[in-house]
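[09:14] KT: can someone run the structure on this one? pasting the chain below
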Amino acid sequence: MSNQLVELLEAIEIEKKGYDTIYFNKGLLFKVIHDSDSHILVKADNDFTFTLAKLGQDKLWKYL
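[09:31] RB: done, structure tokens below
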């Protein structure tokens, strides 16, 4: 497990099966759980997990 954090550079809307739509605001921090070649798996403070595409790095999110 990584101690790496990412910060959102833009607000995002997450639609995940079994959950209501969740909105995360610009500036929020997430812990990186797994890092792959194309995506990162992150976890919010409420333990909600989701992936971010590496294509969005430095546009939608950035490593801290």
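[09:33] KT: thanks! The chain has one domain: 5-63.
[09:34] RB: yep, looked fine to me
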